[in-house]
Amino acid sequence: MSNNNESNKTTKFTAPGMSDESAQKTIATLDNRMVALIDLQLTLKHIHWNVVGPNFIGVHEMIDPQVDIVREMTDTIAERIATLGAVPVGTPKSIVDRRTWDEYSVGKGLVTEHLAALDKVYNGVNADHRKAIETLSELDPVSEDMITSQLADLEQFQWFIRAHLESSTGELQS
């Protein structure tokens, strides 16, 4: 095993027509989103394994397609990072080291406990995707479009979660 810091290895190019400075800022923004989505897909799988109680099967079966789509989003971001000349780093320790939020705290739990906690996770992921869109609008329209497309799916997933938490009057119960 090499002692070289793999995350510092970069190629000597970026996308044609893009400045190195714009590429580096874009890569940093995309890396943050990649870390968040890797964390999200693992959190979703954790919920899938540990949700119990009434409506268990509906939630259990709702989560796996989200895992698959979020995994595809992560791959798309990692490949964009590579396209821009950087090395996408997705090793477990590197993800934990670069994460800026707390660990998901619910272990085995009722549907309502997990979904209320997951709604908060989506609040953070989706708000940060919106911030990334703002940043990328100044830097790279290709990456901006990619993150915008992902946000549409992520917001729909949050709507699915909230549908389980919503009262008949439209208020979220947590």
TrEMBL record:
GO molecular function: DNA binding
Signal sequence region: none
Top-level lineage group: Bacteria
One protein family per Pfam: Ferritin
Region described as Disordered: 1-21
Comp. bias regions, Polar residues: 1-13
Protein name: DNA starvation/stationary phase protection protein Dps
Organism of provenance: Pseudoalteromonas issachenkonii
Gene: dps
